[in-house]
Write a structure and sequence with these properties.
By secondary structure, this protein is an alpha/beta fold. The protein has helices at about 40-50, 65-70, 100-115, and strands spanning about 1-15, 20-25, 25-30, 55, 60-65, 70-75, 120, 130-145. The chain is built from 3 helices and 8 strands, in the order E-E-E-H-E-E-H-E-H-E-E. Strands 1, 2, 3, 6, 7 and 8 form a 6-stranded mixed β-sheet that branches.
């Protein structure tokens, strides 16, 4: 599994002109699943996202996790993270997990996030979504698990 993790002041996701998920200070997670990924990958990735110390403490150092600050999480499925763009000009998605399996794994990943007790919102799996964010920093990381 892969995630693009962004520290945000706010973020939202919209489907067909309606906002279906919105958060304040916290994390925007764009998440993709590759063929062969498992629940173990989802558990690891959720733990890394929740525990990564990327929020500033009183001294201005990145020393706090989203759990430490009581932040919020917006998780959005994004199969394009599985793209192979090493050859040619058109992305190949042959390494992406099949949609029905990816939906189950994404849902499991979200449940792992929810175990933290934080406010977790999601996009709509497989839908055309518009994601808005106010990146705080900017702070962006790419994680694999």
């Amino acid at each position: 599994m892969k995630a693009v993790l962004q520290r945000v002041s706010e973020a939202s996701v919209e489907v067909s002109g309606a906002t279906i998920g919105a958060i304040g200070k916290g994390l925007l997670l764009l998440v993709g699943a590759d063929a062969g990924d498992s629940r173990k990958n989802a558990e690891y990735l959720a733990d890394r996202c929740l525990g990564l110390r990327i929020f500033e403490d009183q001294a201005g150092k990145m020393n706090l996790s989203v759990k430490d600050i009581g932040g919020q999480v917006l998780a959005v499925s994004q199969f394009t993270l599985s793209a192979d763009i090493s050859r040619g000009r058109r992305p190949s998605f042959s390494s992406a997990m099949e949609p029905h399996e990816a939906r189950e794994l994404f849902d499991y990943f979200v449940k792992e996030l929810e175990k933290s007790g934080l406010n977790v919102k999601t996009g709509e799996f497989g839908a055309k979504m518009r994601v808005r964010l106010l990146n705080d920093g900017p702070v962006t990381f790419v994680l694999e698990g």
